[in-house]
Amino acid sequence: MNYSHAKQKVYQTAVRLNKVDLIRLSAGNISCRTDDGMVAITPSGIPYNVMVPEDIVVIDLEGNLVDAGEGRKPSSEYLLHTSILKHLADVNAVIHTHSSYGITFAALGRELPPICIELLVTGGPIPVAPYAYPGTPEVGEMAASIFLERPELKCCLLKNHGVVTIGKSLQEGFGYALDLETGARIYHQALQVGEPETIPPADITAIRQKYNLIADR
User: Fold this and answer.
1) Based on CB atoms within 10 Å of each CB, which residue in 31, 120, 146, 157 is the most buried?
2) pTM to 2 decimals?
3) Confidence of residue 212 (pLDDT cuts 50, 70, 90)
């Protein structure tokens, strides 16, 4: 199996996320499901400014290496990605960012309410998964359980850690990750001058219907 196309897509998404400061250095990780059901994922410990498509690693859903350059290992958070992909058959992309405003609210353990369209389209209110030591199976299991409970949800915060976003494609996942950080920044700014008001529940339903933001799992 030739994985060059999947590797290129993961690489390009990493470059885009790095440019908008949702990931930096080697923090954060990106994966997508390949045509044969494997997982193309960013490698461990390689800064994004020197990464090349050939650095992307392919593993199976158990974390076993399928295709990797010499000395290349999957991201230390590969269990986060494989857990979600195992549990959610409709998800083909997982993006874990270390975005500044997302981590701010993750550190507070404070969910993001639907105060704007950006937080609504990502499934707001955006919950906070309980803290789990990074790189452990618990991180992925808890995130997957939240997404299973909330089919409309596209993002969740990881307590004291970061953000995880899912999508049917890497492009969709990138859009949700950017929307989440934009919404978190708006919420943070609004808190500086007052108590933000959420979108009325009736309007939330109407907006979701208008933009086809309906549960699909």
Assistant:
1) 31
2) 0.94
3) low
Could you tell me if 87 and 144 are in contact, meaning their C-beta atoms sit under 8 angstroms apart? yes
From the list 92, 89, 37, 32, the residue with the least C-alpha distance to 62 is 37
The Cα–Cα gap between 42 and 19 comes to: 16
How would you class 37 by CB atoms within 10 Å of its CB: exposed for 0-12, middle for 13-18, buried for 19 or more? exposed
CA distance 216 to 11: 28
In a 3-state reduction of DSSP, which class is residue 132? coil
Catalytic residue among 54, 77, 138, 152: 77
Phi, psi of 112 (to 5 degrees): -100, 115
* Neighbour-count burial of 41, counting CB atoms closer than 10 A to its CB (0-12 exposed, 13-18 middle, 19+ buried): buried
What domains sit in the chain, N to C, each tagged with a CATH number? Answer: 4-210 (3.40.225.10)
Residue 77 among the catalytic residues: yes
